[in-house]
Write a sequence for this structure.
């Protein structure tokens, strides 16, 4: 920019000194460089002259629709309600998970207790345990002689059973 202003000042001074009014206002001091070939990289060239970009036509600027404040506040209010419901749902689910965990622990405890009782029943219902209990509490003993079989007369049996 500095050179441009200096060139203009020199030209004005030259015109003033020479007193010539017919000198053209702008004399090129050096030849203008030829324009470099322009390339369009986003598709086909838009102009009929190859190598030059064409400025697109000005389109009408559409006005943005003004959004109602009421609609914005309503949307924010609905979003806040949705967030509160979502957080409440998460809290409820967490409480249910804790309750399920507590019930599962209680179930495991009762199941273990039942297994212990079943093992105790199996131990006490064995022949050895029953025999020991019968000897200790009731004074029962195993017979020393073998049992003998005998025949019973049917008539005598009926006579006793009718009484």
């Amino acid at each position: 920019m500095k050179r441009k202003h200096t060139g203009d000042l020199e030209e004005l001074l030259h015109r003033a000194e020479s007193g010539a009014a017919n000198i053209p206002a702008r004399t090129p001091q050096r030849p203008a460089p030829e324009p470099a070939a322009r390339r369009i990289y986003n598709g086909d060239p838009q102009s009929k002259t190859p190598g030059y970009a064409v400025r697109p036509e000005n389109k009408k600027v559409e006005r943005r629709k003004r959004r109602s404040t009421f609609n914005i506040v309503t949307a924010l209010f609905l979003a806040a309600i949705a967030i509160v419901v979502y957080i409440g749902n998460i809290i409820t689910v967490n409480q249910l998970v804790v309750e399920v965990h507590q019930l599962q622990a209680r179930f495991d405890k009762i199941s273990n207790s039942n297994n212990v009782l079943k093992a105790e029943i199996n131990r006490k219902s064995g022949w050895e345990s029953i025999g020991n209990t019968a000897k200790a509490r009731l004074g029962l003993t195993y017979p020393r002689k073998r049992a003998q079989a005998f025949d019973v007369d049917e008539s005598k049996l009926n006579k006793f059973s009718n009484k």
